[in-house]
Specification:
The protein is of the alpha/beta class and 420 residues long. The chain has 16 helices and 17 strands. The structure holds iron/sulfur cluster.
């Protein structure tokens, strides 16, 4: 099982961010902070509850995400990891990742996080251009990124990832590639490069729509940024293993790979999602409501059972994100049907246009296919839904009970649903 812990605190809200987090301003978040104490108490309580309900399952990765987990003192991260080792069978070689913002990492704290058990840091750099960072509303400058990477290296972190955003207003493919070269000089083991999305209700979206910012790159320029950027990263020694993720050999993020490969994951903390035994639930995106739910032992009470169609669409969506692609036999194992027969016209058309490839029993998106992955996935979804409907009508499709999914999450129905 994969374990995700959502830390819902940030210094301030970035302009593009739609994640759930509470801005705490400039002060240091310490153990005395009331909100943090509430979060801490309940995250360990929630962990203990799920450890019991699931029978202390093995855990092979832990991911502290947020929010800004690096706002937590290292001792708190260490305390939570100790508790995780008691509630679950935590693999001695587990990947323990922590998201961090560059301005909150110093040489001293980096060493402490390492000693407390964190062995992988994902640094929210987003850009190495101060103008872009200001536009995004980030609380750091480019020099902070370099300082944080050196601090982590000096502390003997051997697995450092940087998160970047491309497709910013006014950005060109030339500038993006120049930035990638600068980033590569820092020698991170891992790079996540996400295209900017203008989420509903974010200041960034309003600024773009009002014309207050330079226009976003047009479709052709965005395509150049994606394809040429990925080619450049490969030349620089980074293997693309997912639509937005690149890593040096041996440094794929095991937590995210597990997620894309459909492993069970338990999410703790407000707004965290879990999927266990074919059931999915999401905690309330509010510390108070989530804490009340934890106190009533009711997280997961509103879990939904994923039906066959949900599981098939998810299989296609998650596997096609990866460079390895979808093992077509996995579709048969789930549905009893033949993937290539069910999607024949679509696969032929995509293949003809160089958007997918089939090799050794795997169907994968090419880089151009990854560029338009959303519309390709929509077409696969439509074709799958149609094939499953036809299969059900003809009785040639495996039923919902046939997918090898365990029937329920113990304790998932142990309390009334939280009133929203
Ligand atoms: S630091 Fe991350 S989670 Fe926090 S506001 Fe910025 S983007 Fe959102």
């Amino acid at each position: 099982m994969l374990l995700y812990i959502h830390v819902p605190f940030c210094r301030s809200k970035c302009r593009y961010c739609a994640f759930y987090s509470e801005p705490i301003g400039g002060g240091l978040l310490d153990e005395a902070s009331e909100r943090m104490q509430l979060w801490m108490d309940n995250v360990v309580l929630e962990m203990a509850q799920w450890g019991d309900r699931l029978g202390r399952p093995p855990v092979r990765t832990v991911f502290f995400g947020g929010g800004t987990p690096s706002l937590l003192p290292p001792s708190i991260i260490g305390g939570i990891l100790n508790r995780a080792a008691r509630c679950f069978r935590l693999d001695g070689a587990a990947e323990i990742s922590m998201e961090a913002n560059p301005e909150s990492i110093s040489r001293a704290t980096a060493g402490q996080y390492l000693r407390e058990g964190v062995n992988r840091v994902s640094l929210g750099a987003q850009s190495l251009d101060d103008t872009e960072l200001a536009m995004l509303g980030r609380g750091h400058c480019a020099a902070d990124v370099t300082r944080a990477v050196y601090a982590l290296r000096d502390a003997h972190f051997h697995n450092i990832g940087l998160d970047l955003i491309w497709g910013l207003p006014g950005q060109t493919s030339r500038r993006w590639k120049k930035q990638l070269k600068e980033v590569a000089r820092l020698r991170p083991e891992h790079l996540s490069c996400y295209g900017l999305t203008l989420e509903e209700g974010t200041p960034m979206r309003e600024l773009c729509e009002s014309g207050a910012l330079l226009p976003l790159p047009d479709e052709r320029e965005a395509a150049r940024m994606y394809v040429q950027g990925a080619e450049l990263l490969e030349e620089l020694g980074y293997l693309q293993y997912e639509i937005s993720n690149f890593a040096r050999m041996g440094y794929l993020c095991r937590h995210n790979m597990g997620y894309w490969e459909g492993e069970d994951y338990l999410g703790l903390g407000p707004s965290a999602t879990s999927t266990i035994g074919g059931r999915r639930w999401t905690n309330p995106a509010n510390i108070g409501r989530w804490a009340r739910q934890v106190k009533r032992h009711a997280t997961g009470a509103d879990a939904e059972k994923l039906d066959l169609t949900d599981r098939v669409l998810e299989l296609i969506m998650l596997r096609l994100r990866t460079a390895r692609g979808l093992r077509v036999k996995a579709y048969r194992e789930l549905t009893g049907r033949d993937f290539l027969r069910d999607h024949k016209p679509l696969v032929h058309a995509l293949h003809r246009h160089g958007l997918v490839r089939i090799k050794d029993g795997y169907l994968r998106l090419t880089r151009n296919g990854m560029l338009v992955s959303n519309s390709i996935l929509e077409r696969f979804f439509d074709a799958s839904r149609e094939a499953l409907r036809a299969g059900e009508a003809a009785g040639t499709c495996r039923t919902d009970e046939g997918g090898g999914v365990s029937p329920s999450v113990p304790g998932a129905a142990c309390g009334p649903e939280e009133a929203e």
